[in-house]
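Pasting two entries for a bug report.
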Amino acid sequence: MSIGKNIKTFRKEKKLTQVELAKKANMSRSYLADVEGDRYNPSLDTLSDIAEALGVSTADLLHGRESFGKFIRLEREMAGLSLEEVCRRTGINETQLSRIENEDTTSHYFDVKTMKKLAEVLNVSYVQLYEATGALIDLTEQEKKEFFESLYKEDYINEQVLFTLNLFDFTDGKNKELLAEFINTLSELIVKSKKKFTFSINLEKPENYQQLKNNLIDHNDIDFKSSVIEALSNLALQHKITEKINPLPFKTEREFIHDAKIDLADKDLVKKYPTISVDGRPLSEKELRKIIGLIRMDRELEEE
């Protein structure tokens, strides 16, 4: 697009009138209108004033914002990935992604799950990927913040689901009693919540247990998943299943902590209670910090 059209696009994104932008950039509205209409070529100083008023760079005004397709292609190439590899790892249709990269279509929105996979495969943040789509243009900064916090919170819950389910192992077929309690606990939660959720009771087969994990991760009700975490964690405690320690991945945990303002590294609390024991074993500093984080997570969910 031309410089004038780029300025107009950014102005509309910022929800500014020509009068408002002209005032912020210290110029007349009529002059700005002529610039947007490509009737005048602004000087670099004028471009700099307009860019500052819009909160963008001069390069953005000169070249326009990078399209979603171009963003994906550049990040994919920087990561050394082929189009086929990205599609295989994300489940995106190859023809669809190719058309997006070549800007042959305006339909380039994926569901949240696919966007998460794409961000992970390209090794970019959610924020970068969603901003590149242009889908957040009409949102206020507060609405953007709430949107991304909800994504990070869902990630955190899903990590807890996997951590909890990984405590149990029914593949050896020995602990029939625990398996029965596990199935009953989960079934009661489903009935109580009135959620549509099914799973195979033959959880001794690894593929069925993996499918249960996948179905829970894909479920879109955070409250239901939180109930599953709590109930199955209690079941694990009752059966003294404490040997398997699998802390949350640092990257996801740090992302969630940063955006949801949860501080797991509360050294004062850790130092104040260094002698807490579970099953006769003192909790490590890492375990104490995790407990502190889970408590704060529960409080945040209760406040909503």
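Entry 2 (this is the one that rendered wrong in the viewer):
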Amino acid sequence: MGGAVTFAAALPVTLGLLVALRSAQVSIGMLLVCHGASVALIGLQALDVLGGGAGLLLDQLAQGAWVLLFVWSAVMAHLFPDGALPSPRWRWWLGAEVLGVMAFVVGAVGNGETFSEQHPGQAPPLGALTSTVSAILGTVGLVALVCLVVGAGVAVVVRLRMAHEDARTRLLWLVWGAWAVPVSLVVAWANHFLLGDQTWLVIAALGVGTLSVPLTVAVATLRHRLFDIRVVLSRTVTATVMTGAVLVMYASVLEAVRRLGGDSTVGGLLAVAVVAVVIHPAHSWLRQRVERRVHGYRGDPHRALRMLADTTETAPQETLTASISATIAEAVRVDWARIDTGSGVDDGTHRFPLEHRGEVIGSLVVASPPGGRFGAEDLALLRDLARYAAVVVFADRHHGALRDSRARIVAAREEERRRLRRDLHDGIGPSLAAVVLKLNAAETRTDAQERHAILKEARSEVKEAIDEVRRLVDDLRPPAIDEVGLLAAIRQRALGLSEAVVFEVRGPSAMPDLPAAPPPLPHRSGGDDQRGPPRERHPV
């Protein structure tokens, strides 16, 4: 027993000194040292190694020392992993709760009745409080202790929601250690009420409950990547819940058979049968839920691909790429994933090429899982997700290009309509209006010679209007393009405009095949350039 107490007290002190000396978390290290000192105080009182006045003083101080084990662990949970509170507002909360717990310690130390029961006829070395004051301090302290423990849990949850990568891994170590505390307390109570206080079970439960938090906090601070804590935590939770369920189920069936007046042997066999039938599907269901919470859908590739397909179908077009990245991160349970068009490998990430029909259109960059690494099956799943994402990203990009192309086509068509309207309004329209006026004027003339002159002018303007209509039609699709090709058509146009300025058209001897729509544009552009201000001879 003495060796166990020495080990339980020395381990937190040693770990605390290592944390204080080898990391920046001095406050965490000092709390571990205080935890070990409290274990030593309780252990010395239990072993009764001191006699006389020193022993009485130690016994009185140890009356409320057990609560300090919860205090140090709860304060560490408030400060972990960076040694600071989640926000400045937490200082008042933590200070008030610690003062309340200290009131419990004072009330327990000053409880003269408890001291008299342990040492009949002996007066407390530090004096005693009245029973009323001791009870008030004890009640206030217990409420403060409950609030302190609840606050520690809230602080850890808040940090887990905001933490990334290393910080999250360290917090999961703390969660794993804290999970052992209520489990050990339940085991100790079950041992006391059901098993008759088995000594070895008491020592094991108290040892686990006392050392689990200091040990995991020290490992999280110094070697948080020792192994994949998420796997360990998930399996610990599964095993604990299933073990508790089996014990409760077995005991419930036995008690039910006993109350019905059945034989204990029959009850035992019935309990075993019920457990055997229920435990396997329950274990599979629970393990699946816990694994999904920790690892996502790494163990269920079809479900992961189905999630990605559902996202592709329901996500808005504007946020499709971001939605795919978020779905992949959720499927493999990592902090983030993104679709990247760059190259290279970032630290702590995995990069998978997005390849579609031999064309690399980007990369799927995935953060490493906190506290571990991807296995071969996980990497295979990510490659499959990358293949599917490549098709979606390729289609999304081409959809955007098609949308832009349609917008340009609509804009070009609208511009062409404006040009036609302008040419008709500014050219043919006034010409035809002038013809009508001249015909009206000719109709009013009585002199045949004057009427003949006016009709001659009208006839000339009608010819000009017809020529303008032909020019507009030729601009829409010049016949020369179909007859001699684009380059020769531009040369013909340049020759027709070469009067004061000589235009020279150069181009390849063999032009590629062009679709029906594009050629009029360069042909028209060449003509517009040739109709520009006179310049020196230059290639167009």
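Dev reply: Rendering is fixed now. As a check, the viewer should reflect this: The first strand starts at residue 337 and ends at 340.
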